[in-house]
Write a structure and sequence with these properties.
Layout lengths: L33 H10 L11 E2 L5 H11 L3 E6 L2 E7 H7 L17 E2 L4 E2 L4 H11 L3 E5 L5 E5 H10 L3
Parallel strand pairs: 1-2, 5-6
Antiparallel strand pairs: 2-3, 3-4, 6-7
Length: 168
């Protein structure tokens, strides 16, 4: 392998140039074109991501909500009052509000435990917008308002799956 720095003809498979010690590993291997990935993250909207939905009413008990979350294998539920989003209940809410010294009982209504008035995105917002909101807000799930007025949830897990499938 020819060293790109000094031109020395090294033994094939050498990690460093035998002449100038320039690192040679990963030389000649295909490299990802991150420009394409950046462009797709900026341009693709949230409809490109997997999404999930589990909704409950504000009066639903925490115990019932937890059972539904486990059965559906989701990390959060949207709390809807007559179709209007009033809150989100996540695994973090469960840990922070149903455990420890100030723990509430599991028969407490989810409206007492949820994070009220969560920030939402629209399905036409970009994947980059979702990443920014999740990063800045320090949350893993974000409600998405669809064109028909209904809701779904996207999460960092969905963004990572999208990135893993990206052809770049």
């Amino acid at each position: 392998m020819i060293c790109p720095s000094c031109g020395y003809d090294n033994t094939e498979g050498a990690d460093r140039c035998e002449e100038c010690l320039t690192p040679l590993f990963n030389r000649g291997l295909p490299q990802a074109d991150t420009a394409d990935l950046g462009r797709s993250v900026m341009e693709d909207d949230l409809r490109q991501l997997e999404q999930e939905f589990l909704g409950v009413s504000p009066e639903t008990s925490a115990d019932e909500v937890i059972d539904k979350m486990k059965a559906a294998r989701v990390g959060c539920v949207l709390v809807l009052d007559n179709g209007k989003l009033v809150g989100i209940f996540t695994e973090r809410d469960l840990l922070n509000k149903l455990t420890g010294k100030k723990a509430r009982t599991r028969d407490t209504a989810v409206k007492e435990l949820m994070s009220a008035n969560p920030e939402t995105l629209h399905e036409t917002d970009s994947v980059a917008t979702a990443l920014n909101k999740m990063s800045m807000g320090r949350y893993r799930h974000i409600p998405v308002r669809k064109a028909d007025g209904s809701y779904s949830v996207t999460s960092i897990k969905h963004v990572l799956k999208y990135l893993a499938k990206a052809e770049w």
